[in-house]
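Help needed: design a sequence for this.
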């Protein structure tokens, strides 16, 4: 156990406990529908992602998982009638996962985040949440830049992002021409573009 005054390690341990709680919640959701926690996540991404992010390879990167595990999860969801496979015309080696009506109905009833966690966060004041969110964003950006995590479509890793120290008092998005105060930074943006700032 870390020393009580080792705040960095206490934060790391807290994140690990949250991750365990999240996994337990996903398992409980999966049990209701006769699928695994991984299959819950794959189904959710297939239902809520644009076409290019529904490739098996893209979902594998999104979940930071092994391709074999995601392929197996997809196979079972196809067998259960929740997903179909489609050959990607732009890359014949790739497979795109599409949700069926059953898959969409199942996903609509699967709360991917525990309601108790959502309710607790909604009760917390912004003065507590914004610094915590920005700490997480900056930490994730560092992990992405170090190649520890493969996929991160956040403002801080986007070539359209202009930090406050470059463009004035408030960060900005060059693509959307919008100001980005700390509480408006995105963790997953559909306009994301990797690469160095223009």
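Sure. Designed sequence:
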């Amino acid at each position: 156990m870390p020393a009580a005054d080792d705040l960095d390690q206490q934060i790391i341990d807290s994140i690990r406990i949250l991750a365990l709680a999240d996994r337990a919640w996903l398992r409980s959701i999966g049990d209701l529908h006769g699928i695994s926690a991984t299959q819950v996540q794959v189904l959710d991404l297939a239902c809520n992602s644009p076409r290019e992010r529904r490739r098996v390879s893209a979902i594998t990167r999104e979940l930071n998982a092994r391709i074999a595990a995601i392929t197996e999860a997809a196979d079972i969801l196809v067998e259960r009638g929740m997903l179909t496979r489609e050959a990607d015309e732009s890359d014949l080696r790739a497979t795109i996962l599409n949700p069926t009506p059953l898959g969409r109905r199942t996903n609509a009833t699967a709360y991917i985040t525990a309601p108790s966690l959502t309710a607790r966060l909604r009760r917390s004041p912004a003065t507590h949440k914004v610094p915590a969110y920005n700490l997480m964003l900056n930490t994730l950006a560092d992990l992405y830049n170090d190649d520890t995590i493969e996929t991160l479509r956040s403002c801080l890793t986007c070539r359209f992002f202009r930090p406050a120290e470059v463009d004035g008092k408030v960060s900005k998005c060059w693509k959307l021409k919008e100001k980005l105060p700390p509480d408006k930074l995105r963790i997953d943006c559909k306009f994301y573009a990797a690469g160095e700032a223009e």
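The chain has two domains: 7-108, 124-184.
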